[in-house]
Amino acid sequence: MTARPAAILSSVVAAVLIAGCSHSYEVPIETPIKPKLDVSAFQRVLVAGFIAGGTDDVDGNLETTRLLRSQLRTKSNLRVIDADVLPLMEVAGAGNASTTSRPAGTQAATGRSVEIRDEKDLEPFEHVFADAEYWKKIGEEYQNPLIVTGTVMFTPNERSGFVQREQEVYDSFGRRRVVPVRTYQERKGFRLKPKFVFIDGRTGATLHSETFTEEVLYNANQTTPALSSYFELMDRLLPSFLSTLSSQKVKGTRILLQ
What we know:
With 258 residues, the chain is α/β, with parallel strands linked by helices. It has a single domain, classed as 3-Layer(aba) Sandwich (Rossmann fold), CATH 3.40.50.10610. The protein is 29% helix and 37% strand. The chain contains six helices and eight strands, in the order αββαβαααββββαβ.
């Protein structure tokens, strides 16, 4: 018997077996996903704050810090430390972060207010995450926790192009049907790009870092508050963030034949 007839016969046999099954059952299953980072050495986690920019409508530093602390309280085994958010822009702007423990205010060392509007504006500040001496001092202050920090860019976004939508049409006999229609639209929304940096508070060394990007677009005539869009986009990212620190379960279904 050649391979092709054998494959056809196998398909026929499978079809007969399935046809002979009188019932099928949909069974819910959960698949565990191991965390990307081993945090078993830590009992506490400090969400220290973020260098944020993009739009003035949302304080990406405070909102991201509050949201991650809230999620970690309910979805991780680590004790979340309540502390003031670190002014990382000033710390980084001071040059050597390890010599600047807790500067006040929101200005850089030059005394001028700093605005971060795009990713290039972040580059002068990102060196702070590699300053192991500074982060070790922060770790000593809070009993050597896992430290979560990073950058958050939340920027307005516009895009124009063809969008497919469904439209009802009626023929000459009054019969209704739905057809796809492509129309050119201008759409506006927001783009969220956070970079999460995980630091060992015992040594100040970076353990892991990961960047995510999400965007949402609305019709040009639709008005959606920036803060609502921020939370919508963060909802999409949170499962990936949490899976870095703790085991997560992906829910699904399987069909069983009887």
